[in-house]
Amino acid sequence: MTSQPLLSDPHGAVQALRLTCALAATTTDVAMLLGAPLAWWLARGTDWRRDVVGSILTLPLVLPPTVLGFYLLLALGPSGVGGALSRFTGRPTLAFTFTGLVIGSVIAALPYVVQSARAAFETVGRAPVEIAYTLRASPLRAFWTVAVPLAAPGLLAAAVLAFAHTMGEFGLVLMIGGDIPGRTRVLAMALYDDVEAGEWREAHLIAGGMVGFAFVVILIMTLAQKRLARRKP
Amino acid sequence: MRCRKAWKEQAMAVHIRTSRVRTGADALIGRMATVVLCALISLTAATGIARAEQARVAIAANFIGPAKALIDAFARKTGDVVTPSFGASGQFLIQIEQGAPFDAFLSADDARPATLMREGFAAPGSAFTYAIGRLALWSGSAAFPAKEETLRKGGFTRLAVGNPRTAPYGAAALATLRSLGLYDALQPRLVTGVDIAQAFQFVQTGNAELGFVALSQLHDRPPGTVWIVPASLYPPIRQDGVLLKRGEGNRAARGFMNFLQTPEAKAIIAAYGYAPV
């Protein structure tokens, strides 16, 4: 993350925007890499192990972000796993770092990814993949060349949801971020600061921008789904 | 597409079914609603009579410890209930300006109560200084004992402060760093809590080695070392309280503000490490 001063960015709104986009993009990548295979596995059976794993993955969806924030603060800290990991880089904690935020928001975004992707894989069904097997495709190859392309619209929706959700992440960042400009002060945090400090103009700019962004995302998703639905026989 | 059509048909069927039943059930539901409503009204009336007067007070986060002790002492004395909300003073200023239902406000500075007075949200003449805050550097890490030397030497990764824009103790922390000539050097290591309570919690969980907190927060002697920052290094933290306009007619709110100025209350406040007013 570069943090050179930007022209006409006195309160760091542009910096916060860049940081937020970076966080959302990184989170989406990681959440898709973890979530898509998990969803694939979940979609291919109904035994109790899948039910348990599916339930655990859904937890962040129903828990308040403060619960996640509290556990993460302890887990990322010096006496937790995060602290042990970050000691390799000479830091006592993963809290207040970009990496820490990515870990938190991946956990928060996973339910969205897994649910969408799982539904997509379930719609594709077993038949196409089993046909690929009969043609001697390896499981990995069947996944990449048959299941993924067929489930593409659902996977795209999963990625968009993960990205949009991370753009709006707040409670978690509030608890493990430490509000560091250029590293953990994301847009929602900058907005909170501006409101608390009575900087209405800046607050309006950020809040209005986020409303516009969310609207565009939802509209694009709706239009894309409409088109995809029409294309199907 | 086919799925959606089926869903629509089913919804229609349910709708028809329920509308047919409704006429019969209407009378029963109506009677039940009356009974429940009566029960609710009598319940609220009963508790209303029995309940002592209640006040909602917005209190700066540095004052959490003494506030709880003061509220207990006040309740024992009068039977009136004070419900506290804790947060950053700047946060409360905005909330009160936007009509938050607080009867009184104990700020961590004198500027915000003055603003409320000027804007007409506070009862005229009700402002008074209830405490003078003392800033402390707290370290939870044995490798970095809390003292001026440690700040000069550096070596630690994180120094927690309250948000200087909204928390007066955060502003005092930055003023201290500037007085010591260390602001530019340490600025990249600052982590900011939304209020002084979060700054405390960052050190408590070990995520920051050091933090500037209110001395009152260290009343229960948490592990670690403490450096009481000399008062010459930052402008005095005069903590003012005001009765708000909506609390003018509230006996509990007025009583609590008066109680804060009694010797009994002053002794409690002093015990938490505030300088005498």
Automatic annotation (TrEMBL), chain A:
The chain crosses the membrane at residues 16-40, 52-74, 94-114, 142-164, 203-224. InterPro entries: MetI-like, MetI-like_sf, ModB_ABC. It is a multi-pass membrane protein. Residues 17-223 form the ABC transmembrane type-1 domain. SUPFAM superfamilies: MetI-like (SSF161098). Keywords: Cell inner membrane, Cell membrane, Membrane, Molybdenum, Transmembrane, Transmembrane helix, Transport. It is found in: Cell inner membrane; Cell membrane. Signal peptide: none annotated. PROSITE patterns: ABC_TM1. One of its GO terms (molecular function) is molybdate ion transmembrane transporter activity. One of its GO terms (cellular component) is plasma membrane. It holds the Pfam family BPD_transp_1. Its main location: membrane. Part of the binding-protein-dependent transport system for molybdenum; probably responsible for the translocation of the substrate across the membrane. Belongs to the binding-protein-dependent transport system permease family. CysTW subfamily. This is Molybdenum transport system permease. It comes from Acetobacter nitrogenifigens DSM 23921 = NBRC 105050. The lineage of its organism: Bacteria, Pseudomonadati, Pseudomonadota, Alphaproteobacteria, Acetobacterales. The gene is modB.
